[in-house]
Fold Metallothionein.
Amino acid sequence: MIMRDNVLKRPERKMSQCETCGNEYDKAFQVTMDGKTHTYDSFECAIHALAPVCGHCGIRIVGHGLESEGRFYCCDHCAENSGVKGLRDRNN
């Protein structure tokens, strides 16, 4: 902090811009994935940009999910309804 003319002034913070929504925010954070660094202002924006989509129901997969032949599924129910057999959630 700097005192100038009897007024306490805080140093300005650099505002980072969210790659998803374009919002400029002083508390933005970065995520590095596959060697590329991305900047977001919220987990919601990071999830929207980076999380895989279930091949059956279309929901963004925030947890571990399941994968078969390059397609992701949010649960074994969705995998089975897409014709994928033998996958199981690891929630036991």
Notes: The first strand starts at residue 2 and ends at 4.
